[in-house]
From TrEMBL, chains A, B:
<dbReference type="InterPro" id="IPR003781">
    <property type="entry name" value="CoA-bd"/>
</dbReference>
<dbReference type="Pfam" id="PF13607">
    <property type="entry name" value="Succ_CoA_lig"/>
</dbReference>
<dbReference type="InterPro" id="IPR043938">
    <property type="entry name" value="Ligase_CoA_dom"/>
</dbReference>
<dbReference type="Pfam" id="PF13380">
    <property type="entry name" value="CoA_binding_2"/>
</dbReference>
<keyword id="KW-0436">Ligase</keyword>
<feature type="region of interest" description="Disordered">
    <location>
        <begin position="1"/>
        <end position="24"/>
    </location>
</feature>
<dbReference type="InterPro" id="IPR016102">
    <property type="entry name" value="Succinyl-CoA_synth-like"/>
</dbReference>
<protein>
    <submittedName>
        <fullName>Acetate--CoA ligase family protein</fullName>
    </submittedName>
</protein>
<dbReference type="InterPro" id="IPR036291">
    <property type="entry name" value="NAD(P)-bd_dom_sf"/>
</dbReference>
<dbReference type="Pfam" id="PF19045">
    <property type="entry name" value="Ligase_CoA_2"/>
</dbReference>
<dbReference type="GO" id="GO:0016874">
    <property type="term" value="F:ligase activity"/>
</dbReference>
<dbReference type="Pfam" id="PF13549">
    <property type="entry name" value="ATP-grasp_5"/>
</dbReference>
<dbReference type="InterPro" id="IPR032875">
    <property type="entry name" value="Succ_CoA_lig_flav_dom"/>
</dbReference>
<dbReference type="InterPro" id="IPR013815">
    <property type="entry name" value="ATP_grasp_subdomain_1"/>
</dbReference>
<feature type="domain" description="CoA-binding">
    <location>
        <begin position="45"/>
        <end position="139"/>
    </location>
</feature>
Amino acid sequence: MPQSTRSATLDAGPAGPGAGPDPTTAAELAAARRRLATPERLRSFFAPRSVALVGASDSSGWGQFIVASLATSGFTGPLRPVHPTRPTAFDRPTVPSLRDLDEPVDLAYVLAPTRAVEGVLEDAAAAGIRNAIVLASGYGDGGGEQGREAEASLVRRAVELDITLLGPNCLGYVNAAASVAPFGLGIVPPLRRGPLGIVLQSGALTSNVLAFARAHQVGISLLTSMGNEAVITTADVVEHLISDDDTEVIGLFLESVRDAPRFVQLAARALERGKPIVALKVGRTEAGQRTALAHTGALAGDDAVVDAAFRQFGVIRVGSLEQLLITSGLFTSGQVPKGRRVGVVTASGGACDIIADRSTDEGVRIVDFAESTTAKLKAALPPFAAAHNPLDVTGIVLAERGSAQAGLGDVALEAVVDDPGIDFVFNMLALPAAEPPDPSIIERRMAQIATTTQRSPVPIVNFSATCSDLSPFAQSLLDKHGLHTLAGIEFGLTAIGQALRWQETRALDPRPPSTEQVAAPAGLPSGPWSEARSRDLVAASGVPVVPAELVADADAAVAAAARFARPVALKICSAAITHKSDIGGVALGVQGDDDVRAAYERVHAAGRAVADDIEGVLVSPMRAPATELFVGVTVDPSFGPVLAVGLGGVFIEVLEDVSLRLLPVDAAEVRRMLGELRGAAVLRGARGTRPADLDRVAEVVAQVAAAAAGLGPALQTLEINPLRVDGDSVEALDVLVVTNPVTHDPAGAGS
Amino acid sequence: MPQSTRSATLDAGPAGPGAGPDPTTAAELAAARRRLATPERLRSFFAPRSVALVGASDSSGWGQFIVASLATSGFTGPLRPVHPTRPTAFDRPTVPSLRDLDEPVDLAYVLAPTRAVEGVLEDAAAAGIRNAIVLASGYGDGGGEQGREAEASLVRRAVELDITLLGPNCLGYVNAAASVAPFGLGIVPPLRRGPLGIVLQSGALTSNVLAFARAHQVGISLLTSMGNEAVITTADVVEHLISDDDTEVIGLFLESVRDAPRFVQLAARALERGKPIVALKVGRTEAGQRTALAHTGALAGDDAVVDAAFRQFGVIRVGSLEQLLITSGLFTSGQVPKGRRVGVVTASGGACDIIADRSTDEGVRIVDFAESTTAKLKAALPPFAAAHNPLDVTGIVLAERGSAQAGLGDVALEAVVDDPGIDFVFNMLALPAAEPPDPSIIERRMAQIATTTQRSPVPIVNFSATCSDLSPFAQSLLDKHGLHTLAGIEFGLTAIGQALRWQETRALDPRPPSTEQVAAPAGLPSGPWSEARSRDLVAASGVPVVPAELVADADAAVAAAARFARPVALKICSAAITHKSDIGGVALGVQGDDDVRAAYERVHAAGRAVADDIEGVLVSPMRAPATELFVGVTVDPSFGPVLAVGLGGVFIEVLEDVSLRLLPVDAAEVRRMLGELRGAAVLRGARGTRPADLDRVAEVVAQVAAAAAGLGPALQTLEINPLRVDGDSVEALDVLVVTNPVTHDPAGAGS
C-alpha cells in the first residue's frame, strides 16, 4: 500500500535532490505535500497504536520526556526504541534501525541529529512507516540559507517517501482523546480529556497551556506543537480538527498565518459548523513582529489585516494565554450566552460593582428584574438585602451556611433564571479548596445548582471572583455535577463578550473570498491610471462620480464650465501624474470665463512640464464642504484584496481610524464597518452636518469594492479620496486606480 | 482616662439626640469624629490584646467565624463572650453585659441587633472600653431616612462616649502583623504576613482577596473592611497605613471616594513617602456607578475626575482584583524596575512573542543586548538558539535538566543582568507544583537565582507564564531564597507598566491642592460674566487675548475696526447673553465701513431683543484658521477645581478627547496634559499647520488655571473656547467666566 501511493506521488513529477524547482514542480510539490496532510492522513497520524523512538538512549532528556509523556497519556501500545549501538533503552530492547522492526509501527519519533534525519526517513519508508515527528532543529528555523535548503530537501524526501511529517524543530503532540502523547517535554499528570483542540506554533508553551487548562477544568482532545510546518501546517491541523468528532472548540497560538487564504476558508467553515476558533495571535506590535520573525523566519503580516480577517470570519482573538483557555473553556461548558441581557447573582456587593463595570466594557447589559422576580427575591432575602440586578444575596449566605438559610443563594438563582427579561445568568460560585468537615452541605448546593441548570430556560455561567486554580476537590465536585466555572470576573466577562460577538458574527454568515482565481479583464493598462479612466471604471460599477468633462483646450474648458454650476475645478489628467496638486496641476474654485481659460493654461502647462502623456484637463463643478470619506482597496500580500473605509481629515490622518474587511463585502457589511469607526457620530450628524444616509453610503462603498474585485489579479490599488457625503448625496470626487502587469496565461495557472 | 477625654469632647459642643445639627455643631461633630480616628487611636484600635464578643451564641454563624478567624490569626489574648442569657459560648463562660467584665477589653465586637447597639456602646464606655466593631446593618446602607437617622445617632453616641467605631454594617478586620483578626467571615489559613495594607469598601471580597494574595506570595499587614464608615473612614485608615511601620504598600477597593480633598492630600503624602497606593475603584461606567450607589448610598462622582486625580497623585488604578494584588505584590518584592529598558530571559519562544507585544503596550522597551552580552550568551547557548533580546534559551534547558547543561538558564541570567543597556530583567521562572524526586536540582537553581539577584546591578523581576496559584512547595522554595514571582505575563507586564508610571509620577513631586480655603476676591458679580469682563480677568493673569474694543455705537465700531486689520468680528457684550451666536449676536468677517456699521446695528438689535443689560459690542480683528484648543476650569463637587484641556472640533465634540488635572497645575504639568491628547500630533503639525510652541501653550494654559484659582470659592466655570494656537502665537479668542454667589464671612468658616 505505501509502495503504490508512493509511486503515484512520484508519477506526478519527479523532484529528486538537486533538481531546480521550476514553477510546475513547485506547485506539484505543494500539492503532493498537501496530500500527505489531509484530514484522513492526519486522523491516523494523530492516533498511532504503536510508536518507535529513533535515536534515544536512556541518558537523553528528550527521550525520557517522550517515554514519560506517553505513559501520562495512558498509551499502552508497543513502544520500540531504536538505537544503532545500545542494546536497550527505557527498559526495552532496541533495534539498530527501523528496518529491523519485525512489523511497521504507526509513528516514528525521530530524535536523530539533523544530518541523520533523511536517512532515518528512508529507513522508515523501507519499513512501511508512514508517519514521523522530527525533533531536530537547524532547518528553516535557523534563518540561514543552508537550513532552508535542508528543509526543502526534507520536504521533497517526505513527499517521495510518502511520509506524513510533523516538524522539524517540533516537540510532537498530545492526543488526550486517543491516549497517546509522543511529546518531547514533560506533561504533568493528570491529563484532562475534553473537546478543546489546540495548535501551538510554539511548543515550549505546551506545559503552560496544559497546566492552566487542567487547573481550570478545561479538557483537551488534541494538542500539537507545529515546529517548522515543513509538511503538516497549522491550516492542515485546523482542517483536521474541524472534522474531528472529539473536538468542539479550536484554540490556536499563532506566530504567523502562513497560508492566509486557506486559513480564512477554514475559519469560515469552522464558523459555519459552529466550532469556535480562539486564537492568541502574536505580532500585534512592531516588537512582537520582530520577535516572532526571529523565532520562525516567517513574516507576521500586517496585523491590522489579520485582526480584520479574524473578526470578519469569527476567529476570536485573545490577548493572553489565560484568556485563550478561559474563553475556550466557556465554549466547552455548554452554557454559552445567546444574548446580551444578564442576571447577576453573587454574595458580594463588591463583586457586583466590578461586574457592573466589566459588563459595560463587554456590551453586556444588567437589566432590571421583572416584578415577578423581585417579588420572589424579596420573600427569600433578608430585609437589608436589595432585590435588584446585580443581586447581592449578602454575606448571610455564608454566615448562615448549614442553617435554615442555607439555600438562600440557590433560591435566588431559582428566581433569577425564570426572569423573562434575561438571556443568561452570571452566578458567582465560591468553592472550597479542600473537602470541608461536612461535605454534604456543599454537595447539596452543587446538586441544586445542577438541577437548576438542567431546567433553566437560559444558560447559567458560573464564575469565581478571581483567576485561581480549581483545587482537585473543587474539580471533582464540579465534574460530578456536570458544572463549569469561569476563572474570575476579569477573564470571565471578557470570555462572555467574545462568545457573544462570535455568535453575532456567526449569524451574519460571512462569505469567504472565492478560492477561484478570477482572470483579469483583457486590455488593462499597467501602473497608475489617469483620473478619467479611473472614474470610468468605478462609474461602470454604479459608483456616482462628480460630473466632469475632459477637455483638450481652453475654449473647451470654458464651454464645459458653462455647463456646470460655477465655481469649477480644473485638474490635469494623465496616467503619469498621480500627485496633481503637488505639481500645480489643480485649480480650485474657478469662476469667470477668463479665469477658467487662465486656469486651463496654467494647469496644462504644469502637466506638460512633468509628463508627455497628457490626456487633457478635467473640468468639474466644485462641491460645498461636507463629510468626506476615504475608501480604498489594496492587496495584502497574505490575505489578498482588503477594503479600507474611514472618515477624512484628522480621523484618517491623525487617528488612523479605518475599518478593514477582506473582499467580498456587501452593503450590510459596509454598514457595520461604518459603525466601527471612532468618528461614526460624524456620519450621524454630530457636527451639525446633515446626517448621512448610511444605507446609501454602504451601497456605494460596496460598489467601489466590486469595481476593485473586478480587476482580478491586476488590482494593486483603487482609491476614492474623498467620497463626499451630504445626507443622501454620495459622490466620488477623486478616483485613482493602479494595476499590476498581468500575464494572460490561457491555462490560468501560475498567477 | 476615658472619662476625661469624653468630657473634653463634650465640652466642644453638646450634640444630644434630637438636637438639630446647626452648622457649628456639624463641623464640630466632624472634628470630634476625626479625633476618634487619628493614626494614634487607630494604632491601638487595630492591635487589641483582648476582645469581647457581644451578643454571640454558639449557634451564631458570625460568632463562629469571628472565633475561628481570631484563631487563624494566632490571637492568644483573652476572648470574652458576652450574652444576656446563655452561661457559656465557644467553650468560655459568658458575662451578661460588658459592664460585668472584671477588667476592660481593648476591643468589643458588637454582634447585637441594630436596636441594641447603642445600649451596648454605653455598656462598653461604662466598662472603660474605647474600641468597637459594629456588625449590624440597616443604617445608612439601607437607603432609608430612618437608617440615616439611626447612623447619625450612632455617630453622636460614639463621640459622646469616646468610642472609636468601625462600621456599622462591617465585618471587621484582619491584622496579620499583630496576629489578631476580629473578622466575621471565614479566613482560610495560613494567613501570610507581609507589607501590604488593604482597605476594602466591600467586606465580602475579603476571602477572595486573602485567598488570591496567599496563592501569589503576597503577605499582608492589615486588611480591614470599612462598612458604612460612620466613624472610621477609608481616609483615616489610609492615613494610619501611611504611618504604619508594618505597611509598605497600600491596596484599596473603593466604591466611592468620600472625602476627596483629604484623600488627595493623603495620596500625595503616600507618594512623597514612597508608599504606593494601588486602587481598584469601581464606578467607571454608568452601570458601575448605579451599582455602587445601590450598595453604599454614596455617589461615586465623575469617574473621569477620579481617574485624573489618581494619575496626578500617583494612585495606581487597576481594573481587577487580580491586578490589585499582583501589582501590590511587585511593590512588596523589593525588585521594582526603575527604567523602561528590559532584558528578557525565557525558555520559550512563544513567551518571548507575547512579552514583546505586551511590553510595547506598557511602554517597556526590549533593547538590543550589548556586544559583550551577546558574546557571553553565544558561548553558553546551543548553536540553534539566537542570542538576542528577548532571549529564548530554548527547551534544551528543560530537556537537559540535571545534566551538564543544567545551568544554562542561570548562565544566561548572569550574562543579561550585566548588560549595560538595561534597567531590569524579566526572568521567566517555571516552578514545580510538587516536590520533585530530586529537589536538589531546583534548590540549586533557586539558590543561583538568589545569588544573581543579590549581586545584580538591576532588579530581576521573575514571572510565570500564566496566572496560576503558587503551590505550597513553590512558595516554600521562593520564600527560602527570598524570591518573588509575578503571576503571569499578562498581569505581570501590566504591573510593571504601573510601577514605572508610579515612579515617573513620584519624580514629578506633584503639589496637592492647598487645604487652606482661599477667600473669594471682594466685589465679584454672581452668575455669567460679560465677555469684556471675562477677558479682563484672564488678561490680568497674563493670558494673551485677541485685541478688542468695546463700543457703544456704530461710529465707534467703525473707528475701532479701522484700528484693526480687516476683516473684523463684532460680538454683543452682555452678562445676560452667554450663547451669542444663537441669538444672532455675532457678525464675522466684516470688511468695509458700511458693513461694520450694519453689523453693529444688527448685533446690537439682536442683543436688545433678549436682554436689557447690554454693555456694548466688542470689535476684534478676525484671525486666520489655525489649531484651536478648548481650555476650561470647572468645579467638581468632590475634588474641587478641575482643568480640562482638549483640541477643538471633532476631538472634543466627537471623541471627547480631553486631559484633566486638579488645580494647581504648572506649565510642566500642562505640557504633559497636551501630550496625553489623542490628537497630540495635530499640535506637532501633523495636518500641515505650523507646529505649536508647546511650551508657550502650556504657559498660557497655566495662566488660565491660575486666573480660575484666583476666584477662590466664587469659581463656577472659566472657559476659553477657542484658544487659538499658530506656532508660537497663542491667543484666547473667546472667554467666559461664571461665578457663584459667595457670602463673605469674616470668620472664614462655613463656606
